[in-house]
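Section 5: illustrative case.
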C-alpha cells in the first residue's frame, strides 16, 4: 500500500489536554486521530498535554487508525521538546504548523534526524508564504520524510484578512493548486476543517467540494463529522463496480498491449485503469478496516 492509497477519509483533531476526549479516541471510526498540542491547548497546559499524547500513543489500542501528534512550531518555546517526545512516542506521524518554505521542511527534518524511519512528517499548509511556494515545498518529499499536507484555511483566512463563506470562495484557487502540487510529488493531502460542526448539511457540502477538488479526505473538529465525511470520501458501490469492470476488460487477452479500449460503450484509456486500480485498493482497505 502506497502513501496515496491508504484511506484517510477522516482526520479528527483531539486536544491532548482533555483526558475525557482522549478516552473516546479508540472507539471513533475516524481513519486518523490527531492528538493536538498546538491550537487546542493553552500555554500553561502544553507540557502536560505533550506527556498525555505520548502516553496515549504508547498505550496503543488504536487498531487500523493512524495516530498523529500535532506539535507546536519550532519557533515556539515548546516546539523542540515536542519533536523530541514525538520522535520516540511511536506515533505514525508528526504534524507541524505554519510551514512556509522548503527551508522550514529541512529544519523539521533535521530536528527529527534521530526518529525512526517510519515516522512521517505531515505539515499544515496555512500561511500565505506556503501558498506561493507549494511546488518547492512539495518537492522536499524526495529528500525528507514529508508525506502529507493538511490545509489550514482558518489560519489562511486570518493572514489574508479574507472572509470565510460557505462556498470558500477566497480559497478555491489555493485549494486547487495545493492538490495539484501534492499530486505532482506524490504527497497525500487533506482538506481543511469545517467550523460549522452542528450544520451537517453545510459540512457535507464542503466535504463534497473537497472530494470534487481531489482531496484524499478532510480534517475534522468534532466526532459528529466523522460519519458523513467517511461516506463522502468512500468509493460508492457503483464506482467500485465500474472500476472492477475496467480492470477486467484490460485483463482480457484481446486487449493486451492496448492503450485505449471500449468498455460498456465508453472509451477507456490506461489512465482510467490506474484510477480504477486505486479505487479498488482503497475500497478493499476500507472494507477490511
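Designed sequence:
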Amino acid at each position: 500500500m502506497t502513501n496515496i492509497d491508504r484511506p484517510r477519509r477522516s482526520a479528527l483533531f483531539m486536544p491532548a489536554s482533555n483526558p475525557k476526549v482522549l478516552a473516546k479516541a479508540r472507539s471513533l471510526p475516524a481513519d486518523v486521530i490527531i492528538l493536538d498540542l498546538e491550537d487546542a491547548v493553552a500555554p500553561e497546559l502544553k507540557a502536560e498535554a505533550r506527556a498525555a499524547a505520548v502516553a496515549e500513543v504508547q498505550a496503543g489500542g488504536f487498531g487500523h487508525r493512524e495516530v498523529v501528534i500535532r506539535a507546536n512550531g519550532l519557533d515556539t518555546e515548546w516546539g523542540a521538546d515536542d519533536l523530541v517526545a514525538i520522535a520516540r512516542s511511536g506515533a505514525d506521524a508528526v504534524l507541524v504548523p505554519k510551514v512556509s518554505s522548503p527551508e522550514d521542511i529541512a529544519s523539521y527534518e533535521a530536528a527529527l534526524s534521530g526518529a525512526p524511519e517510519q515516522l512521517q512528517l505531515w505539515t499544515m499548509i496555512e500561511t500565505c508564504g506556503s501558498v506561493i511556494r507549494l511546488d518547492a515545498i512539495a518537492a522536499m518529499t524526495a529528500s525528507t520524510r514529508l508525506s502529507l499536507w493538511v490545509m489550514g484555511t482558518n489560519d489562511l483566512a486570518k493572514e489574508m484578512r479574507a472572509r470565510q463563506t460557505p462556498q470558500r470562495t477566497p480559497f478555491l484557487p489555493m485549494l486547487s493548486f495545493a492538490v495539484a502540487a501534492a499530486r505532482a510529488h506524490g504527497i497525500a493531502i487533506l482538506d481543511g476543517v469545517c467550523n460549522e460542526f452542528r450544520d451537517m448539511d453545510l459540512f457535507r457540502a464542503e466535504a463534497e467540494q473537497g472530494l470534487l477538488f481531489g482531496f484524499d479526505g478532510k480534517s475534522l473538529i468534532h466526532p459528529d463529522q466523522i460519519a458523513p465525511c467517511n461516506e463522502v470520501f468512500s468509493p460508492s458501490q457503483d464506482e467500485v463496480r465500474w472500476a472492477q469492470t475496467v480492470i477486467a476488460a484490460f485483463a482480457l487477452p484481446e486487449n493486451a498491449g492496448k492503450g485505449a479500449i471500449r468498455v460498456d460503450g465508453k472509451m477507456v484509456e490506461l489512465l482510467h485503469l490506474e484510477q480504477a486500480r486505486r479505487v479498488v485498493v482503497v475500497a478493499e482497505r476500507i472494507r477490511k478496516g
